[in-house]
Amino acid sequence: MNRSLVLTSLLAVTFLLASSVALVPYFSSNVVSAQQDKDQGQDQGQGQVKHVTLIASETQVQVAPDNALHPGGITYNAYTFNGTIPGPVISIDQGDTLNITLKNEGKTIHSLDFHAGYGPGKALSGSVKPGDSKTWSLKGEFSGVFIYHCGADGLNGIWEHISNGMYGGIVVHPANEEKAKEFYVVFSELYNNADKGPFVGTNGATGSFDIGKFISKNPDLVMTNGMAHKYVPAVGEVNKLELNKNAELFKVKPGELTRWYVINAGPNDGVSFHFISGMITVKDGTNQANNGLGTQDRNDETWWIPPAAGSVIESTFPDPGVYVGVDHAMADVVKGGAFAVVAMENSTATDYPTGTCVAPAGSESVVCEEAAAAGGAGTEQTSSASEDGANDNGNDGDGQTEVTQNATMLNTSASSGNATGNATMMTGNMTGNMTGNMGGNSTMGN
Ligand SMILES: [Cu+2]
Fold this sequence. Notes:
mainly beta; 6-stranded mixed beta sheet; binds copper (II) ion
């Protein structure tokens, strides 16, 4: 399939990254309790026993930034795991046993359904009443990335609980995985009874689930990691439309292998996953011959991810500049389903947008700790040509994601990993006038 006229026109779009990258505060309560059960240790060479706690609750979250499309921004009465949409990405190695505790701190019945395995009482928690908790075990037999989601009360209301934000990803690393910079991206739809549509928004109201919009499959927003246009500062090379002045960006080194654990939570529509200016290789399912991820598709353009599915997408971004991951269904781009990727020489191994880092293969922890380690060591990264500073958060050794700051800093770079190593401020500084146009005439800050 050749690139369409629509894509050609999109290729001409420049994402102006003039605004510095400040933190999006909505992950601030993304708390994961996780530890390895060291006393149990190795299970006869069959992998390790690891543990994760997910806390179900009802939480108000911001789901769209304040921009022309959504004046005043949009907040929503969400249902969440660990306080955020999506829930945290949980990472284990193939053969590991994952002990899961689901604590219900909400006011309604919740539950959990893991697609990474099967069996009643294994993949499914069963209903967990408010105030209760439940612990059970799942064996990571098959590598890949899989969704987990709430199943409500024995499926009664599952449609609303998923729509409201109760989903996340579990990564099962294969034994022979190639090293890559890895990211967690979850696409999903939102059906909001307070949302009056583009350029109107909610007039300050906080919305809730809209069953009518849901049945007619007409979402107001398509979100990446819980927010529309979360990672898209602006579109337009000549006529600029600012979409998110606080957008964090995905940063990579030109030419490095990147691996994207892309989940489509749906709940109704698929994702036509594509990198503008990029190509993708899809690895998913298990290749029995080498016990690794099976390669489904190589050097292709767009990959269909149906609702309630995840795909492992690999790509390299050969030249400095801006690339854009999209749900290539154009209505879904307008509704928010896109994210900017910047290939820049001074990208670091730990400059992840908040909440997108995945614990690598062989990690002791089920959540990402890499960024914290780098921050604690006082890692500093500076772009000499930068006008604006950008600050990311890190994960500390307890597996708790902590937003360390939310301020934009001009003409500075900073690293302030503190003594306990739980404050990482990687600066991925972008030039104030960095334009990465899709024709390869990118101006980079290096
Ligand atoms: Cu639920």
